[in-house]
Write a structure and sequence with these properties.
299 residues; mainly alpha; 0% strand; globular
Amino acid sequence: GVWAMIAVFLAYCTLQAPSTILIRPHPAFWRLVHGLAVVYLVALTFLLFQNRDDARRFMKHLSPDLGVELPERSYGADCRLYVPENPKNKFINIYETLFDEFVVAHVLGWWGKAVMIRNQALLWVLSIGFELMELTFRHMLPNFNECWWDSIILDILICNWFGIWAGMHTVRYFDGKTYEWVGLSRQPSIMGKVKRSLSQFTPAQWDKDQWQPFMGPLRFIQVLFLCVVFMMVELNTFFLKFCLWIPPRNPLVVYRLILWWLIAIPTIREYNSYLQDRYFSVPLHKPANKLSMHLLMEL
């Protein structure tokens, strides 16, 4: 019954929810994302009024494997690069860290952030800022207790750098791409129709997001606000996993991250449009005189 209620609500949102400034792959898709954000917000509100044990029992309705206390892995228990007494692998600490599930998550996550933010300097502020947050909260989350080489070399200089590099190359590719949006029925060949159908999932146009945090005190505060919200969203992922006993490989973690990525795409785009329209009068967009509903929903 609850799932049927959610399905009806999402169908209504797909048809009647407010549209974003994004039109690809279809405005209805982003209205559906808005509906999913509302459902997620209502679910968090429900959990907020439960005690810790009831919240953990509730999670078993979403995944039967949950509700069991998990041993948290501390990555900083042994920071030696070379372990001579280990008979199987003398570099066991490096090996286990490199083949941890969070390595792939780091790369894919920073690729997605680069595609959304499109500003390399701001991305590095977020990258280093989150590592500082790990240092700050390592006394609360054992998962944040990392070795210096794991935090600086593997996270910042390898995984985050590669994700940012790949994301910015994706941005430059679409920035220099020429779009010819001819209707599907006017394509001369079957291959042309297939390419046109697939291109529906690419941007109709690629706008340059100019953050310019040093334009003035107000702009600096506005960009800093974005960074704070961004890091809070990331931090909540780890606190929710810890409090609700959700293992890192549980599908709910992946589903939540995908949902947040979809929510953040129109949110960041509309927030940047709000800043640019007030200072640059960007063409093709109506002036954004107030914060969008998607940004308020994310907050």
